[in-house]
Amino acid sequence: MSSKINGQVSPHSCSHLLQFRRRNGPDSFRALQDCLRVKPPGGRASIRRDPAEVPCCQACGESGSNRLYACVTCAAVSCHAPQLTSHAAAHAQSMSPGHEIAVDVDRAELFCCECRDQVYDQGFDAAFVLAQNTATTTTGSTLMQYSAEPGNLRKRRRVDYRHWSPDSRECVTMTNLSTPLYDSTNSSDVPWGLRGLNNLGNTCFMNSVLQALLHTPLLRNYFLSDRHNRYHCQQKNVANNDGKNGRLCLACDVDAMFSAVFSGDRTPYSPAKFLYSWWQHAANLASYEQQDAHEFFISMLHRIHEKEEKDQGKPHSQGSGDCCIAHRVFSGILRSDVMCMACGFTSTTYDPCIDFPLDLEPNRGGSAKSSSTKSHNSCNVEAERISLNKDCSISTLKGCLERFTRPERLGSDQKFFCQKCQVRQECLKQMSIRKLPLVSCFHIKRFEHSSIRKMSRKVDGHLQFPFSLDMAPYLSSSILRSRFGHRIFPFDGDEQDAPNDLSSEFELFAVVTHTGRLDAGHYVTYLRFSNQWYKCDDAWITQVSENIVRAAQGYMMFYVQKMLCYRASEK
Amino acid sequence: MDPQDLQETIHTKLIKSGERERLKELLRERLAESGWENEMRALCRAFVRDKVTSSVRLDDLIKVITPRGRESVPDNVKAELLQQIRSFIASNAV
């Protein structure tokens, strides 16, 4: 009963729907389009013959408690109670054939009264989406062009986690060839691998990020389980005759650092070799000046990726995370929808991202994210009202994420070229997360560099961030669902990929904070070990209460996915 | 005025003034905030997953989920909505 659209399985159309379509042709739902009333914000759409209409069941006058369905053939409105009487079903039977299909007046979703089930029609859904985006309905075919689903999101079968235990032979190998990290005689309750990092001259920007990365669960496991063996790698580099540069592998230095930090030695470690290596890679940043911790973070991940790409010889798309451990852990995919306000044509693009940059203030003057206060669009009036409310309340990470995924009207100075209209038009842009990374790094844009005014400044405001975060509302599937209700989307084949309840839940494990001014500041990292927080201030590690962390000025927050899902290997 | 008429009058007034719509939105917001919506979604998913043989009809789903949903509405949400309705009735001289 299901059909394939664009190679994806779509919800079934029942025989009654198919008959209806056959009988009424391509404009089957034309009359309905005229009745679509969209109430911004949230875009909830309903079917009303006139805006003030209060629909009620023509059989019993019921207008409140049960769902109301309007027959798409004769517009008769009937109530439907799944457990009790259904006047909608009675209508379908009495007027049969031809009156089986009805539309939910409050949700604009199709229903088959005979099959007693929701049905989907691509033509209707496309028309619905179009009508939602425009004030007036248009004639002719609707155009919803989606750029190709990122091909690298291979639909691998999800498999259950199988715990691994070494067999006797593996036990022997392990005993002979490896060194146990955990020393059972170490009775101290300071977490394993917690070690201070010496400041080598304004290197707190580096130390803070390193502390966070050294305790990023997936990264730590990768290096500690010898997935990047620095001896092996160096031998290979020399063998490949890469010359002097061949020995440069930041991942090798990271590997060395992991070994040192997790060796059990508690004295502060000096990451001098690592710093030197990083300088070789980022020559423009090689100085004893204070740098931006976030810039360092990006640069470090980039270097690891580059070397891996060079070794593997073929470029991988970053979104899939198959290229290197840095992307495997940190990269996600962002989806950007740009809707032309004139014709409703939507252009969708997917881009990989390695972290989430978030603006702090709701109404920054120069920032592109601010809503135009002069707009007459009712959407924006609502957005204005919300942001005014937020001015009185505290900034939260969730608020930032909501703002990040909120539809944003690109004003007249940012007109976008619409492929259908063939002119520049004003449009609505909305971001959402197509694929969540395993570790989400939220970067709060506190440092503003204005090239126009030739000055930089720091935004000091406090940001409230949760220790547990559910990212589900910011996913593309959620954003689209809240925009359109339950629809078929041409790309929608990822029901298998649909996040289960746990795969969008994240736990905070590291916070990099910045105190002080732009030119004279200090970075400190707070690490969380099973609900106990530790402050890592260069070489000094101290246990702190969670209130200290909550009050800190978060600059980069690291969240790890609570539950990891496994997919069948390609091999 | 007998209770049935009273209920109908209130109902009509709620709809005509747009208050019913506003209350519905408020309820939606509160239920989403309290995690009720996520719980229901999880229940629906579990129900669909368990139905191995056939696909699930909307009506079946509603039949199963409705009682669970009704009983798990947080008390404070109920109280807030009741309070809002009460003040509406009071200020509209029904």
Automatic annotation (TrEMBL), chain A:
- A single GO molecular function term of this UniProt record: zinc ion binding
Show where the USP domain sits.
195-562
Q: Is Nucleus tagged as a keyword?
A: yes
Which reactions appear under catalytic activity for this entry? Answer: Thiol-dependent hydrolysis of ester, thioester, amide, peptide and isopeptide bonds formed by the C-terminal Gly of ubiquitin (a 76-residue protein attached to proteins as an intracellular targeting signal)
Q: What is its main location?
A: nucleus
Protein localization: Nucleus
Among the entry's GO cellular component annotations, what is one?
SAGA-type complex
EC number(s) per entry = 3.4.19.12
A Pfam family: zf-UBP
Keyword Metal-binding included in the entry's annotation? yes
Keywords, alphabetical:
Hydrolase, Metal-binding, Nucleus, Protease, Thiol protease, Transcription, Transcription regulation, Ubl conjugation pathway, Zinc, Zinc-finger
Recorded hits in InterPro entries, A to Z, give: Papain-like_cys_pep_sf, Peptidase_C19_UCH, Ub_carboxyl-term_hydrolase, USP, USP_CS, Znf_RING/FYVE/PHD, Znf_UBP
Q: Which residues form the UBP-type domain?
A: 12-138
Q: Name one GO biological process term.
A: protein deubiquitination
Name the job this protein performs: Recognizes and hydrolyzes the peptide bond at the C-terminal Gly of ubiquitin. Involved in the processing of poly-ubiquitin precursors as well as that of ubiquitinated proteins.
* UniProt family annotation: Belongs to the peptidase C19 family. UBP8 subfamily.
Provide the protein name.
Ubiquitin carboxyl-terminal hydrolase
From TrEMBL, chain B:
What Gene Ontology molecular-function terms does this entry list? transcription coactivator activity
- Keyword Nucleus found: yes
Q: Spell out the subcellular localization from the entry.
A: Nucleus, Nucleoplasm
The principal localisation class reads nucleus
Q: Keyword annotations for this protein?
A: Activator, Chromatin regulator, mRNA transport, Nucleus, Protein transport, Transcription, Transcription regulation, Translocation, Transport
Instruction: Write down a Pfam family by its short name.
Output: EnY2
Keyword Protein transport carried by entry: yes
GO cellular component terms attached to this protein's record: DUBm complex; nuclear pore; nucleoplasm; SAGA complex; transcription export complex 2
Some GO term, biological process aspect, for this entry: which one? transcription elongation by RNA polymerase II
Entry-linked Gene3D superfamilies: 1.10.246.140
Q: Quote the function comment for this protein.
A: Involved in mRNA export coupled transcription activation by association with both the TREX-2 and the SAGA complexes. The transcription regulatory histone acetylation (HAT) complex SAGA is a multiprotein complex that activates transcription by remodeling chromatin and mediating histone acetylation and deubiquitination. Within the SAGA complex, participates to a subcomplex that specifically deubiquitinates histones. The SAGA complex is recruited to specific gene promoters by activators, where it is required for transcription.
Q: Write out the similarity annotation.
A: Belongs to the ENY2 family.
Q: How does it assemble?
A: Component of the nuclear pore complex (NPC)-associated TREX-2 complex (transcription and export complex 2). Component of the SAGA transcription coactivator-HAT complex. Within the SAGA complex, participates to a subcomplex of SAGA called the DUB module (deubiquitination module).
Protein name (database record): Transcription and mRNA export factor ENY2
Q: Which organism is it from?
A: Rubroshorea leprosula
